[in-house]
């Protein structure tokens, strides 16, 4: 469903992305994981055609983002890190406006709004001003605007950023339910979010892909380096792949924060 091919993004002499390639498939949640400034948001802005890459390209549902960006936008629902809300509007007013901007009218729009109210649990704030509702509800309304046209691809940039634990649980459950018949890509620098949501993980650091695969496949890459044969948490994997000379040993006591040099690791 999504095929990113050798994408490079230059800002002058600085490479925000360098030769990035990955795929995401229908019915799959792909977690784009990396530290702040790794290039995750740049990838998403390119996929949503907000930015054009310096070289390389990507396809969404077989459609090239450079050759037919309008058709790509029709297929994508996008929730940036800060939900794109007009705070002087009511919730229902805003979603009706977004739906009409997407070309949805009449009975089709009413049916879609009814579905969003129910699935996203926003019935209780339907007539509230967007400036009056909590950040958790704003995220839900942000998801609603991304879903109103029933896109086949959902792109979410830090979807649980700033939410409290109960709100995070609710948003996770929503994303999992939506992924059954869509392709979902979400970015985060929070390891538990990836563990809780992602079917596969793409780790990006300093504009380059460091590793890709399921958590088990990423662990196997660490084992093959000879750093440890013990079960690895995603934290262990992440540290080892980004800082290959240092890996937190899984058998260390829970209170220990020592970072150990692996026996027989890379020098």
Could you explain how this protein is built, in words?
The protein has a 6-stranded mixed sheet with strand order 6-7-8-3-9-10, sandwiched between helices. A 4-stranded antiparallel sheet has the order 2-1-4-5, covered by helices on one side. It is 35% helix and 23% strand. With 267 residues, it is α/β, with parallel strands linked by helices. The radius of gyration is 20 Å and the shape is globular. The protein folds into 2 domains: 212 residues, P-loop containing nucleotide triphosphate hydrolases (Rossmann fold, 3-Layer(aba) Sandwich); 53 residues, no CATH class. The chain has 9 helices and 10 strands.
Topology:
Elements: E1 2-11, E2 14-24, E3 29-33, H1 40-47, E4 55-60, E5 63-64, H2 69-75, E6 76-79, H3 91-101, H4 106-119, H5 135-147, E7 153-157, H6 165-178, E8 183-188, H7 191-197, E9 200-205, E10 208-213, H8 215-224, H9 234-242
Parallel strand pairs: 3-8, 3-9, 6-7, 7-8
Antiparallel strand pairs: 1-2, 1-4, 4-5, 9-10
- CATH class category of the largest domain: Alpha Beta
SSE succession: EEEHEEHEHHHEHEHEEHH
Shape: globular
User: CATH homologous superfamily of the largest domain?
Assistant: P-loop containing nucleotide triphosphate hydrolases
> Over all CA atoms, what is the radius of gyration?
20 Å
Strand order of the largest sheet: 6-7-8-3-9-10
- The total tally of domains equals 2
Beginning-to-end CA distance, first to last residue: 40 Å
Would you identify the CATH architecture of the largest domain? 3-Layer(aba) Sandwich
Task: Estimate the strand proportion.
Answer: 15-25%
Helix content percent band: 25-40%
Number of helices: 9
Profile the largest sheet. 6 strands, mixed
- Overall pLDDT score: 87
């Amino acid at each position: 469903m999504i095929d990113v091919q050798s994408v490079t993004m230059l800002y002058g002499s600085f490479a925000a992305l360098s030769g990035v390639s990955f795929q995401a498939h229908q019915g799959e949640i792909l977690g784009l994981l990396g530290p702040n400034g790794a290039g995750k948001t740049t990838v998403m802005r390119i996929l949503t055609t907000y930015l054009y890459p310096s070289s390389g390209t990507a396809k969404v549902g077989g459609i090239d983002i450079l050759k037919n960006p309008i058709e790509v936008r029709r297929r994508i629902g996008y929730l940036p890190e800060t939900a794109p809300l007009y705070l002087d509007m009511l919730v229902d007013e805003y979603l009706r406006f977004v739906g009409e901007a997407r070309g949805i009218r009449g009975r089709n729009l009413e049916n879609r709004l009814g579905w969003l109210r129910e699935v996203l649990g926003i019935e209780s704030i339907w007539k509230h001003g967007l400036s009056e509702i909590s950040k958790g509800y704003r995220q839900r309304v942000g998801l609603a605007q991304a879903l109103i046209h029933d896109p086949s691809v959902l792109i979410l940039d830090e979807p649980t950023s700033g939410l409290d634990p109960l709100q995070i649980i609710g948003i996770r459950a929503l994303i999992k339910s939506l992924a059954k018949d869509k392709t979902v890509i979400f970015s985060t620098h929070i390891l538990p979010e990836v563990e809780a949501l992602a079917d596969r993980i793409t780790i990006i650091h300093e504009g380059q892909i460091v590793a890709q695969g399921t958590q088990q496949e990423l662990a196997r890459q660490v084992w093959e380096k000879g750093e440890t044969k013990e079960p690895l948490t995603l934290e262990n994997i992440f540290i080892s792949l980004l800082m290959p000379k240092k890996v937190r040993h899984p058998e260390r006591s829970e209170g220990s924060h020592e970072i150990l040099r692996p026996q027989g690791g890379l020098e």
